[in-house]
Every structure is written in C-alpha cells, then in structure tokens.
Amino acid sequence: MTKKDDITKIIDIFAEKYPQPETSLNYSNPFELLVAVILSAQTTDKQVNKVTNKLFKEYNTPEEFSRLSRQELQNKLKSVGLYRNKSKYIIETAKIIQNKHRGAIPRKLNDLMELPGVGKKTAAVFLACCSDKDTFPVDTHVYRVSKRLGLTRGQNVKEVENDLKDVIPQNHWINMHYWLINHGREVCKARNPQCDKCSLQDYCAYYTKQED
Ligand code: SF4
User: Fold this and answer.
1) In the CATH scheme, what is the code of domain 4-21+135-211?
2) How far apart are CA 195 and CA 212, in angstroms?
3) Domain residue spans in the chain?
4) Which of 211, 183, 212 is nearest to 197 (CA)?
5) What is the Å distance from ligand 1's center to 111 Cα?
6) Cα-atom radius of gyration of the chain, to the nearest Å?
7) What is the pLDDT of residues 37-96, one digit of tens each?
8) Is 200 in the pocket of ligand 1 (CB under 6 A)?
9) pLDDT, tens digit (0-9, with 9 covering 90-100), for 140-184
10) What's the pTM?
11) Is position 139 annotated as part of the catalytic site?
12) CATH topology for 30-129?
C-alpha cells in the first residue's frame, strides 16, 4: 500500500493539476442534482448535461416532476441510456420527496437509498456533491485509479471505499473522489493509461511495477 508521505505527494499533485474538483454535471438546486445523478448511470455527464440543460428550464422541482406522466418524461429523456426506467424512477422519487419529505431531499444515506433509482453509489455521489464529509463514493474511475496507484488492494467497491477512507485524510475525501474521476477520464484510462504523460509516476504502484 502507498506510504503516508507518498499520499501527501499524490494529494499535492492532484491539487495542482485539478484545482477546482467538482462534478461536471450541471445543476442549480439539490433536486436538479439528484435527477442529474440518476440520469448519469451508464451515461456520460456530457450527454446528461445536454438533456438537462433543456429539461431543467421546464421543470426543476419535485412538485413539477411529480405531475409529469411517464410518457411525457420519456419523450424528454430519449437520448439518455435506460431512459424508460430512469423516467419512472425520477417521477416516483419526486412523488416520495413531495409527499413523504415535504419537498426536501433527505440528506441521510439510508433515506436517500429508499428513493427509486437511488442506489448506494448515486446516494453517495449526491451527498459528496452536497459537501457531505462522510462519504467517499467509489465509481469505476475511483476504483481503477486508486488500485493502480496502490491506495487499496480491495477486491470490491466496499473494500476499496473502506481502504480509501483509512488512508486518505477525511478533509480530502470529496476532493480525492473528483480527482480520481478526472484523472481516470483524462490520463489513467481504463485500456491505455497514459503513464508517459502522468505526473504521478513516482508514486504509482502500477507504473513502478512496469518499470521493474
Ligand atoms: S502512472 Fe500510469 S497507471 Fe499510474 S496513475 Fe499515472 S496513468 Fe495511471
């Protein structure tokens, strides 16, 4: 596993390379964020933004979404993967927030996970975006890059999340979540990690092993 000093270096390098770590999903209120995160499952943030830029001009509250028919919403979401299921989840989620939570989105992980279409990862991403300091969501980029760097030897999402929470200082959890995603998208890609362009070579277990 990565040494403490190396983790400090990794944090410094990420902070310099990605000075404003945040979600690339566009939103202007917490419900828009929740809808965008639901839509982002198996769809790129870019595609989600394209759709929500129009959608949120027409509807952007639980009340407005709860009044939509499934067909109406499906027509607006057609270019998003799994749009039929996502339309159903968003309307049901809007109704539950409206009726059970008086229009306010719950901020506890377990309450969020009771909403249709909101699994642990979606809930954790939502909470991370809302600056909840107790979450460290692990998506495919976080999983891959943290393992390559040697921050974890976990064999599943839960183990990776627990390891990251152990080795990364808590005040950096949210930033590190976004840094690992950015780095996974731009440099440490799934098939061809661009190690020759990566400033983390000296602290990366995967790179060091290749060089041995
Ligand atoms: S050195 Fe290569 S494997 Fe390591 S983080 Fe950078 S791109 Fe990924």
Assistant:
1) 1.10.1670.10
2) 15
3) 4-21+135-211, 30-129
4) 183
5) 37
6) 19
7) 999 988 999 999 999 999 999 999 999 999 999 999 999 999 999 999 999 999 999 999
8) yes
9) 999 999 999 999 999 999 999 999 999 999 989 988 998 999 999
10) 0.75
11) yes
12) Endonuclease III; domain 1 (1.10.340)
